[in-house]
Amino acid sequence: MDVTALAIPDVKLITPRRFSDDRGFFSETYNAKAFKSAGIDCDFIQDNHSFSARKGTVRGLHYQSPPFAQSKLVRVLRGSIIDVAVDARKNSSTFGQWVKTELSAKTGTQIFIPQGFLHGFVTLEPDTEVAYKVDAFYDGASDGSVKWDDTDLGIEWGLSGAEASLSEKDAKAPKWADFASPF
Ligand SMILES: Cc1cn([C@H]2C[C@H](O)[C@@H](COP(=O)(O)OP(=O)(O)O[C@H]3O[C@H](C)C(=O)[C@H](O)[C@H]3O)O2)c(=O)[nH]c1=O
């Protein structure tokens, strides 16, 4: 398993080993002991799976407020995405900064996003499926969002607002300037 830190070091990329043969491959996509030794020591208690039919589907930027804040371990089962994490930790030297990476079923690379970050992704292909583990249960009342294409954040998504498919919730998410971080 290869683990590398992104420019915001608490956000990490994990590429599990694939054992390939003429049938295909086998891979341990999560192993608590191996992840703990790599510095990722979360008690994941919920698995999520989303399917996005259209290329250019944007889901995010989302978070849950404490005590339901979530760390996330994200991977792509089919297709590919650009995954984005925004540091929303008020005392962080990288507060308001973001990192992005491409995740695909082809590589199997995963991203670990700790509590205190906003999370979002845009799909790069139709029929993209994303699976992710979280370490806190869903709590709708704690669910929050920030505008995905906020100009202060300046995230380079690689598509314009006109090209993006959004939920109603995401389309009316507040700006970063109006976001009072709970982290
Ligand atoms: C997240 C979640 C949602 N739901 C229900 C609530 C809604 O009625 C429905 C769709 O939820 P939402 O539109 O928030 O789904 P996404 O836009 O994919 O949101 C997710 O996408 C971004 C990328 C994230 O990081 C979060 O995990 C999550 O916010 O599923 C649940 O029942 N449990 C859950 O854990």
UniProtKB/TrEMBL annotation:
CDD domains: cupin_RmlC. Pathway: Carbohydrate biosynthesis; dTDP-L-rhamnose biosynthesis. The keyword Isomerase applies. One of its GO terms (molecular function) is dTDP-4-dehydrorhamnose 3,5-epimerase activity. Keywords: Isomerase. Belongs to the dTDP-4-dehydrorhamnose 3,5-epimerase family. Homodimer. This is dTDP-4-dehydrorhamnose 3,5-epimerase. The lineage of its organism: Bacteria, Pseudomonadati, Pseudomonadota, Alphaproteobacteria, Parvularculales. The gene is rfbC.
